[in-house]
Amino acid sequence: MTHPLTIIPVQAPVRRAAFDLHETLFAALAAAEQTLQTGDVLAVSSKYAAIAEGRIVRLDDVEVSAEAEALARRYRMNPRLAQVVLSHADHVFGGIPGFLLTHKDGIVSPNAGVDRSNIPAGLAVLFPADPYATAARIRAAVRQRLDADVGVILTDSWLMPGRLGTTGVALATAGFNPVQDERGKLDLFGNPMMVTRRGIADTICAAAQLVMGERDEAMPFAIVRGADITLTDDPITVDQVAIDWHECIYIQSLTDGLLKDA
């Protein structure tokens, strides 16, 4: 049975330095006269969580290596930003003016998630140090304080290959499996599904981003109700959602799999 999906944005104070994320969440819920119920998914801005952890870099303090200088020249970037990206990316594929395409924490994204929006000038925000651990701690805090068993998503935004505009992507998940395997099940015509695995966490994240916004909305939390997830206490890790980038159709097709004569 399909149930309506409800998404409730929750406003919270703008932060510029490390703070207590859990207490801020509970205060924001109380101010909004909202609470969390068992079965809900709590969407949390990954940037807000990162600021809470003090994951902020002052660009003027960054020492630039020769490698970062070369990248900055090639892609017309701020050398200090190039250094921060280089220091935190798991892999750098290449780039365009102003941006490097990277692999970081299981996501192919610009600049390894290093973000300079919604933070004072001269600063940059990194990803949380361990996104999955951050999500798990939030879930545990909600269970202890509100006696509610929920799923948690750390939300981010990314660019879809070949598409204009950002959409939501789940940087990390806790409390439910982020991917639903449909392989072996039958479609409308009785054909067995061969490759389909649904990105449940990413889909919920994209919906939550509609109310959380990208600019000055100050909505770092959203309650997603009716997503019909299956809760679990099993640890969730990046291995359950990310594939090796050598197996990614976009990356592999444009590198080793590129048609050289096309």
Please give a structural write-up:
With 262 residues, the protein is an alpha+beta fold. α3 crosses α4 (79-88). The model has no long low-confidence stretch (mean pLDDT 88). Helix content is 27%, strand content 23%. Strands 1-12-2-8-9 form a 5-stranded mixed beta sheet. Strands 4-5-6 form a 3-stranded antiparallel beta sheet, covered by helices on one side. Strands 3-7 form a two-stranded antiparallel sheet. The longest helix has 16 residues, at 131-146. The radius of gyration is 19 Å and the shape is globular. The chain has helices at 21-31, 46-52, 66-75, 79-88, 131-146, 200-212, 249-253, and strands at residues 6-10, 41-45, 56-58, 91-96, 99-104, 107-110, 123-125, 151-159, 166-174, 179-181, 197-199, 221-225. β8 and β9 (166-174) form a beta hairpin. It is built from 7 helices and 12 strands.
Which helices and strands occur, and which strands form pairs?
Blueprint: E1 6-10, H1 21-31, E2 41-45, H2 46-52, E3 56-58, H3 66-75, H4 79-88, E4 91-96, E5 99-104, E6 107-110, E7 123-125, H5 131-146, E8 151-159, E9 166-174, E10 179-181, E11 197-199, H6 200-212, E12 221-225, H7 249-253
